[in-house]
Every structure is written in structure tokens, then in C-alpha cells.
Amino acid sequence: MADEMVRLAQRFVNSAYGERLIGMTVAEDGRTRWEVMYALTRALQYELGITTLSDSFGPTTLSTLQSKFPQLNAVTVPSANFARIIQSALYCKGYDGGEIDGVYNARVEAAMSRLKRDMGVDGVFPGSDLTPKVFKGLLTMDAYITVNDGSDAIRTVQQWLNSRYVNRRDFFVIPCDGHNSRDVAKSLLFSIQYELGMADGTANGVFGPGTQAGLRSHPVSTGSQGVWVSLFSAAMILNKRQTAFTSSFGSALADEVRAFQSFVKLPVSGGGDFSTWASLLVSYGDQSRKGEACDGVTRITPARAAALKAEGISIVGRYLTSVSSTPPEKVIQEGELRTIAENGLRCFPIYQTVGRDASQYSYPLGRAAGYAAMNAAMDHGFQNGTRIFFAVDFDALDHEVTSSVLPHFKGIQDSMADAGDPYQIGVYGPRNVCTRVGAAGHSTASFVSDMSSGFSGNYGYSLPPDWAYDQFVTRWVGAGDGRIEIDNNIVSGRDRGQNTFNPPRPPRADTRLHNSLLTSMLVDIGKYMQSIGFSDSSPLRFFSHQQCFEQIMSIGDDVITEVSNRHSMRKALIQTSAYWEMRHIGPEDQVQDDRVRLYHNGLPGGIRDSSTGIAQITGNAGLRAWNHCIGKGYVSGTVRNPDHDPDLYTIWNQVQDAAFALRTVALIHLWDAEGKPGGNNPEGGETVLRPMALDYNDREIFQVLRRYQGFGDEAEAHARQRLGLYYVCEKYNSIARNM
User: How far is Cα of residue 231 from the mean position of the Cα atoms in its chain?
Assistant: First the structure.
């Protein structure tokens, strides 16, 4: 909701400073946001005489303010605009700043006293003066009252930390909003370091060797008193444990500690030993522990299985697919699951593609991931009911979880439901990702990437309630042939992997689609296309879903099966490209076809080439693909000159025949995989993929699908959508070749 006084504050900073003096203006919409705080920070820097302005209230701003105005009040405020900056910031924080009239008046004084009380620093900075560290806090988006169902207990801890440590050099006012966060968690580490006697400049908020050694000498237990109990109970509260903030370690705190230790799978003692301190303070906890599970990118051989068992490991996480050949053993290897079972180990499957930023996560890509993971799990022999952990292996910010990750997992969930829920869905990722995906009902257990303690989604977040595996350290185990590097995981018992597997499905060549599959395949492809915005039919498109499906999947199946077998190519590649293009054909394509005919008949208004036929192939692309494949010996035929109009027009007419077009799609894919020589390529050309094969991985499939369309942002975006369609098609081709 817009606030009129915030609007006046925005108007002030624009009119008094704006682009001319501080290099920016803000929207005058009455809404507080970081942009407004940055503008006010720049305005303050300008008034302080700082020449290089910044959005950050950093060391230069703080030290300059400290040296010039250590106490700002009605007497010391240097100018009316300086006072207006303060008044504007107060309104942006929700406090009464007077009339933004440039006067540090009684209303400003009352607001400042209240602000410091809310921060918990009124005892350190009494009265109504504005001190530099309070000013720094004023120019943030931090709240100092509970918001969004914040915890009063957490707010009490936040205020206590501010009150006790705000005068230390590197400790700044933290929010008092009732929520744990990165800044709050780090402030607790600073506080522990200060109590350990670390000097300013040495204390750094990092859980390093000195901090760990100090905590080992400060256990707390029933009967303990003092600041160490306060810090320990604060850590418990920040981890959402139901206990009071206290300096006396009583039975109630001991009971809650036992519950916490049981939850995170520590020895249950009821006391605050080092391992308990560590689990409360950093996501990875005590890395000297030994977990019952591991995951890794190395094949499990009998020797390595023996090494793992000697280390106390009984469960291994392995990958269903990989996007590259490096590392070479990342994917489950032939016979590996049998080795795992025969050596008394269990295995849980992980599905991961690139996934290094939010652009790799969306509803359509989630559906694609679901189908791909199901196909791969069946290929390896995982039985129905196995839980597959889908990876989110990057530091997803909370808004990215909302906009990208949650829709992605909804897509996984929907594709799994469409297939009859053969597998359970797990999530691998930082704590916040796992917690939110589970709370949304899109997963049934979490595999937590707690080693990445600096991730924003781990720092300040509690272990998810549905955690199954807690990944906390990388280590080498074994020797000789058994030596192996693993990520060690604590096990909750919620998931224990599998030790019985179906025979793996070898990479067989595709067969014709059985008629019994076509109805279900029609429905699944329709659902997928609707999920990415294609209604069943559209006046802007010539062909309905059913018409495209019947032409490509049914009528064209014999041709597609033949050419896929000849070229060791998955039928789904040909089906996807042809269906996608046919589904997009509209009136504009007919216009372009007519113009090509004008050109080649010597009439005005024509163009030399266009995409045409059911697979929307240009004469140039079709001609070059045929030439390339003839030269490679993949097919026989006549090599034609792409610069010779009659040759181009001949191919252009041929690809309007459905059977010829489908054969040409396969040849274009072969041409694409081999770098698309002579084609429309990006600067530097296309890379050469490995020879076409039935076991192409996700990255290779994506590249082939993308290159069919071209390059650039649109081709990339469409290829992600095509990838989902590919895996729907591959689902049914997989069933057909294993019937």
C-alpha cells in the first residue's frame, strides 16, 4: 500500500538531489524499497562531502559520519536537507519523521527514541540522538518489529545481541523482526568470538579453527550459568527450538536440547557439547562426524564397496544421468547397482542436469526432468516406489525459489502423476529450497546440501523437517583400489535407498509405436503442450494437436522408425522437431511459401527461400544437410549447389512431401551434431558433438533440438520447451522398445 509520507520522502530526494547530484532518481509511488534507501544513502554521502557515491553504507560513510557527527540532534544536525534525509528515512521505516521540514524536532526525537528501543540499543545509546550505527540501520530495509509472523523469542535474541555487542567495531545493528537470517546468524558467530576474547579485526563471523577450539572448551549443561548459556539458548531459538532465552541451563532447556540432538542425529545427552554447538551455528555442523550415507561421482566397485562399509557407510547416492562425459563415472555404470546390492549396500538415485542458475528451472523444464528421470530410473532398474532426488545445485534466492524452483517441482510432480506415480519425489538443495519445496507438497523428503554453508539458502535457515540425507563434508576413504572420494551424509532414516533392482534396460534401437500406446501418448503430449501455452487448437495455427500427432506419430511412424534405426538416433528427436514445427505453422508461413514461388517463377515480390512443409525446413538447410550426409556416406543422392536457384528450389519443393521432410529432419540432426558446417551458425561456429548415439545425454539432446531452430535467446528458450516434449515422446518410445 502506498504511503503519502513515503511519497513525499521520494519527492524530496528527487528534487533536492536526483540524477544531477547523486546519479539516480526514484519512482514517487509511496512504497519503501531498497532503491529508496540507496538514494537516501547517496544523499547522506553527498552531504558528508564524500565524492564517490555508492548504494552501500560502508566503512567510508560510517567513519566520515563518526568523525563529523558522532551525535546528531537538534543542535548538531548541519543543515535542513541533512535533517530531511533523517526524516525521510524514518518514514520509510514506518516511524513519524515530522513534516520533512528540515527540523530535528520533538516528533523526530520521539521517533528516534522508539527506533533505538525497538533495536534494543536504547541502553547503549540513550536519549533521542542519532548515532552512526543507528543511522546505518535506519538506511536499510531491516525491520525492528516482528513482521510476517515473526517470533517474539527470536526478536528478544536479536535485541539482546544488539544491546550487548553494538559497540564492537564489526558488529552492526541487526534486524529485530523475529526471523533468523544470514546477518543474524553471522552476528551470533561474532558474539561467540567476542566472548572468546577475540579482538576487533580478528573476530570475523566465520566458524574457523579458533572459534571451533574455543567452543570445545565452553560446553554447557544442566546447572550452567552466564553468558555462554545465553548464547547457547539464543542459538537454539534461532534454530526454531521451543525454549526460553535464558542464562540458566535448566531441565526445560535440556529436554529441548535432547529433542534437537535426536532430530539432527547427534548423540542425545541434553547438553551443549561441541557437536551440538556446531549443528546450531553452521549448516555443516561438526565435520569430524561420520555419516551412514554418501554420494559421489565415482563407480562403486567391490573394493570401493568394502572401503565404504569399513567406514560405516551403508547407503550410496548415485546419478541417473549426466550432461557431459566428465567426470566419466558420474552416471551409474553398467553392472554397478548389482555390485552395490551384492556387497550389502543400498542406493538412492539423484537426477541432475546443468541447473546452475534459476533460468534452468521452470514448469516445462520440470515436466521434462520428471519424464527424463523416470526413463533413466527404469533404464537402470530402479523399482517402483524408489525416491528420486531432483537437484537444485545453486544458491537459489528466496524469490527465485518462488518464481522458478517451485513451478519446476510442480512440473516434476505433474509428469510423475501422469505416469501413475511410479517413483517418489525428493529434492536436493539448500535448506530453504528443500523446506519450501516440501511445504508446497512437491516432494516427500530432502537431501540437504549443507556443505555449502555460505549459500543464502543455508545461512540462517534450520534443517528441513523432512530431511533424509544431510550432506556435510567431502573426504577420501579407503586405500589402493578401494580409495574413493565421497560426500559424506548423515541419515535420518526417512529414506534408505534400495537394495533390490530390476534388470537394467539396455539401449535398444527404437521400434514402431504399438497402437495401444497412441491414445495415452496423444493425451500426454497434449497436456504438455497446454502447460507451455498451446491450446488444443488456435485460429493462428493451421493444425490442431491431434492433426500434428496423427501426421507425425502415427502416419509418419514407419519412416521415423526406419531412419532412426539407420542413423542410431532416438525417434523422439525426429518426432519432437517435426511435431513442434508442424504445430507452429500458421498463415504467415503460407504467405512466405507463396513469395518463394513468386521468386522462382520470376515474378515480383518474391523471396528466394523460406521454411516450408510439416517440419518447416528451408531449402538451404535441407540442401546442406543432404550434401553433408551424402559426403559422410550416411545416405546416397545427388550433391546440389546451395547458390544455384534451381537446386535450392528442388529441395524446397521436396521437403513439402511429409515422408521426405521426416527423413530430412534426421539428416539435419546429424548435420547439427557435427557442427552444422556451412549453416547459419553463431560467431565461432557450433561445436562438434560426439557421433549420434542412442545414449545421448541431456546436454547433447538439448543442443540438437536447439540447433534445429538456430541460435540465440529464442532458440534457447524453445529448446528448453522442446526438451520436455522430447521426454514425453521418449517415454512412449521407451515403453514400445521394451514391450
Answer: 33
Tally Cβ neighbours within 10 Å of residue 152. 9
Question: Which residues lie across from 293 on neighbouring strands?
Answer: 315, 489
Cα–Cα–Cα angle for 125, 131, 134, rounded to 5 degrees? 85
CATH homologous superfamily of 162-281 equals PGBD-like superfamily/PGBD (1.10.101.10)
Q: What local confidence, expressed as pLDDT, does residue 291 receive?
A: 97
Using CA atoms, how far apart are residues 537 and 539, in angstroms rounded to an integer?
A: 7
pTM: 0.87
Angle at 310 between CA 308 and CA 311, to 5 degrees: 65
Residue whose C-alpha cell is 540432538: 261
Read off the C-alpha cell for 419: 505416469
- What pLDDT does 408 receive? 95
Instruction: Give start-end residues of each CATH 3.20.20.80 domain in the chain.
Output: 293-491
DSSP letter at 174 equals: P
Q: Which residues, in sequence order, are CB contacts of 464 under 8 Å at separation 6+?
A: 431, 434, 435, 438, 446, 448
At residue 482, what is the residue type? G
CB 79 within 8 A of CB 101: no
For residue 248, give the DSSP letter.
B
Strands (E), 218-305: 293-295
Provide the 10 A C-beta neighbour count for residue 36: 24
Q: Residue 156 is placed in which grid cell?
A: 528478544
Question: Are 471 and 450 spatial neighbours (Cβ–Cβ below 8 Å)?
Answer: yes
Which residues have C-beta within 8 Å of that of residue 41, sequence separation ≥ 6?
Answer: 54, 55, 56, 57, 61, 139
What are the tens digits of pLDDT across the range 690-730? 999 998 988 899 999 999 999 999 999 899 889 889 999 99
Residue 106: Cβ within 10 Å count:
11
Rounded-to-integer distance, Cα 366 and Cα 353, Å? 11
One-letter amino acid at 23 equals G
Is a pLDDT exceeding 90 seen at residue 444? yes
**Residue 125 to residue 107: CA distance in whole angstroms:** 18
Structurally, what CATH architecture does the domain formed by 293-491 represent? Alpha-Beta Barrel (3.20)
C-alpha to C-alpha distance for 689 and 678, rounded to whole angstroms: 16
Give the max Cα distance, the chain. 100
DSSP-derived 3-state class of residue 318: strand
What distance, in Å, lies between the first and last C-alpha atoms of the chain? 60
Q: 3-state secondary structure string, 18-78?
A: HHHHHCCCCCCCCCCCHHHHHHHHHHHHHHHCCCCCCCCCCHHHHHHHHHHCCCECCCCCC
Strand ranges inside 340-444, DSSP E: 346-351, 387-391, 424-429
Is it the case that residue 538 has pLDDT exceeding 90?
no
Let me know: does 551 contact 658? Beta carbons within 8 Å: yes
* Region at 232 (left for phi over 0; alpha for psi -120 to 50; beta for the rest): alpha
Chain centroid to CA 444: how far?
18
Residue holding cell 525426429? 574
Q: Is 486 exposed, middle or buried (0-12, 13-18, 19+ CB in 10 A)?
A: buried
Where in the chain do CATH 1.10.101.10 domains reside?
162-281
Looking at residue 537, its pLDDT comes to 66
- DSSP letter assigned to residue 480: G
**Of 170, 171, 150, 148, whose CA–CA distance to 160 is shortest?**
171
- How large is the average pLDDT for residues 558-572? 97
* Alpha-carbon span 41 to 54, nearest angstrom: 8
